[in-house]
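Re-running DUF4395 domain-containing protein to confirm reproducibility after the cluster update. Everything else is unchanged from the original entry.
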Amino acid sequence: MVDPRGLRFAATIAAVVLAVALVTASPWVLLAQLAVFTVGAAAGLRYAPYALVFRRLIRPRLGPPAHTEAPGPPRFAQGVGAVFAAVGVAGFLFGLPVLGYVATAFALAAAFLNAAFEFCLGCHLYLFIRTITTRGARA
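Result of re-run:
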């Protein structure tokens, strides 16, 4: 189970990094965020760099969370972020800046929604996909 405050903290940092990548059109800044997303998706949220910062520096100063969340949906969201970041990096590196800007903007929008409103777009996509595949399996 994961602390939703940590997820929001990570989304805030990701939004800032993605905004910098978008404004500067830097594939290298975006590549760094891609690495963060990839670690979170592949190794799990426990090992994601922003989660480590939250767990070591911020959470000890806070009380216990009011509730926790299952790690599956946010981990899936990290994977979705990684896909958009990878497309953005490819766009910037291979001379398709519009693709880079659009993919980075989509990732930024999703991170901003989570950071500002605690609305995880990737988590909702995960739950929607699970609903569809579960219903399809029963039919």
